[in-house]
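Suppose you are handed a protein chain with no further information: no name, no annotation, nothing but its sequence. What can you learn? This example shows the usual starting point.
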Amino acid sequence: MDRPAPSNRPGTRALAAVAALTAFLLASALSFWPYTVDDAFISLRYGQNLVAHGELAWNQGEAVEGFSNPLWTLYGAMLVASGAPPVLGLKLGGLLAALLCVPATFGLARQLNLGTGAGLVAAAIVATNASLALWAVAGLETASFTLLLVLMAWRFEVEQQRPAARPWSAVLFLLVWMSRPEAPAYALYLVVRRGLSLGATPLGRRDALWVALAALPIAAYEVAGWLHYGGLVPATHAAKVGGGPRLLEALLDGRGERFLLYRFFFHQGWGFASLWIAAGGCALLGWRRIPAAAWCMGFSGLFFVAYAFTDWMPRYRFLVPPLPFLAIGAAAGFTSALHGARGRGRAFVALAVAAVLLAGSWGQATGGYDRAHNLALAVEPRGAWPGLLAQRAGTPWDPGRQELDAWAVLELTAADETIACPDIGFIGALAQNPIWDIRGLVTPTAASFLNVPEDDPRRASARGVMLDEMYAADPALILLPTRPQGMAPTARRFLAALEEDGRVREGYVRRDDLLPFRVAFVRKGLEGAGSDRKQRVLEALGRLPSYRTELAEERARAYR
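A reasonable first move is to predict its three-dimensional structure. Written in structure tokens, the prediction is:
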């Protein structure tokens, strides 16, 4: 059912509230400023190779689509080509997109005729969310993808309510498609919403123009990707979900605690869980008032989360894109409950809504995360962050545990030596060595091996194919993390495969003392970079001019 867009502009108080919420998100995001996820450097290395060698490749000459964010990767390439500090540019671009999500959510809610109050509630849920704050500055496309989704839905609503409006939402959908592989799931909203408006505006010329603006470029883009990379989905798909537990199977096996959606709602404190339980109850009672943009887009995002099942990154990255739509649905549910109440009951509902909003926001502002990761900053309880804001905002971005690995690669190997390791991003972007990825993001044979269960009779064959390929690359170093989180489970399985195969003992020396929390295999007879080590280090530092950690400054002094 179409609703006329609100004709009145938001008042000064409402705009001031939106500005205050945006300022809160800015402060919250800056409290996470040093955190930079390793996967951001994977996209950056693809961009570096595009600028330097004219090919969108991880290792030169290898056509493997090891990234899942083409538009963001091209943005990184643009930063490299312009001479701007690329990591700083990625972090600032994400921060700006996240900040714009707050007024965009407010604007979409008003466009859906939910009112200023509901718009402020939705904007508040978005602005106080710790996951959005973290991913605003982590260096990936999460916030920009979220913003594009909100702008696309907002524009599409305008077009359904104004038949003469030009179909710019088609261009926004094209950008959404180029941002993340789960973009097709969000097309459900476009189909449903257009179907709901057929009574007022039958299919016509503008719909044909919309399809031409969106579908034709998307088709050309997919065909080009298929011809170059040999597939329609990134190689990362097999590495991340190819062998992971499907939702029903995992639930039947008693592994529901790992389900990302369950952890999102129930591992962030009772206040956060209460917020969504209350919102869900109100939305069910007043389901007729929930706009298609809220339930369709929210469902699409949750469907992808169910498909992916879990994620190895902190603070619910996959839940950020549907967050504004879930927030709008929650706000619509609360508004419906408020309108349905009478007398003193209305005051009680208003107080209850305010209480769950404050409890959910307080949990996000003070709580930690239930998994360890590269930096404690991403997982530690947040209760003291306002007092640490100035310190954290002035701290250089930190690549995490991969920093020591990258310096070992720089100082022990020449630039043309292959390195075998997981957590490939920072090593690849800084040192630029060819990388053989143990996790399988850019090496499909590794992903194929990891996706075979240990009791499967095909395991030995998959192991042999994988290790044949790795040894053919003749890696100078094989680095395996030993900490009981992150990539450690993958590394343990790979270490077992090395030991079962036995060839590693013939050509490598095991060094448990080379790096902390690492098992390192050093190729016998390995010679370091020798006389050009200084040039190699300085060139590496020049690629990432905003890299200013204490370790970087200390190591760099020996070469400057």
